[in-house]
Amino acid sequence: MEARDPRSWAKLAVMSLCLYVSAAQAAEAPRDPYEYFFQATFGDFNEELALARKQSKRGILIFFELDDCPFCHRMKQTVLNQPAVQDWYRERFLIFAVDIEGETEVTDFQGTTMTAKDFAFRVNRIRATPVFVFYDLEGAPMVRYTGATRDADEFLWLGEFVADNHYQNTNFTRFKRAKQAERKASQQTQ
Question: Is residue 3 a part of any domain in this protein?
């Protein structure tokens, strides 16, 4: 049997490891939230409700943002760009971004036309950003979350809190603490 050069095996092992790491990174590479998280809309949220019902979604999520908001930017760069977050949310919700200073015309859930700014400020009382508002299939708000989440896991928990109706029995802080305790217990048993 022919002996192999140990350096060849080492090179092969390093190359295999590099390929594995590259494939793993490519599978989890961040994606543009405006392409993979938010959906395009003409601003007729009444029409979007009908589409959400037709697609058997849980509801509609609106991300109220401001161009110069550092917390909005952080959410888009660290959470909303994650493939797992994008895929999970898109499966359950129609998702739209609304600029709270926008002059574009939108139609609210009752069919009233106004500027995006009025929809944010007058209808939804948005004063700070970011704000995530989850609406049911009738256009009624279910949950409102103000500020950036700590990480993608916390944002996924927020989605689970809404999608699985936990908001009807508890608040998000208690729900999140229970999820953190579950994670800690799971890590201790490993």
Answer: no
> DSSP secondary-structure letter at 119?
I
160 vs 170: CA distance, rounded Å? 13
Supply the CATH number for residue 142's domain: 3.40.30.10
30: phi then psi, degrees, rounded to nearest 5: -60, 150
The CA-based diameter of the chain, rounded to the nearest angstrom, is 82
30 alpha-carbon distance from chain centroid: 13
Residue in this structure with the two tokens 């037709």, named with its chain if needed = 54
Provide the residue range defining the domain that includes 160.
30-189
**How many domains, in total, are found in the chain?**
1
Instruction: Confirm whether 56 is domain-assigned.
Output: yes
Q: Which helix (H) or strand (E) holds 106?
A: strand 105-107
Q: Name the strand (E) or helix (H) holding 145.
A: strand 141-146
Encode the chain (190 residues) as per-residue pLDDT tens digits.
455 665 655 454 445 544 444 444 445 799 999 999 999 999 999 999 999 999 999 999 999 999 999 999 999 999 999 999 999 999 999 999 999 999 999 999 999 999 999 999 999 999 999 999 999 999 999 999 999 999 999 999 999 999 999 999 999 999 999 999 998 998 888 7
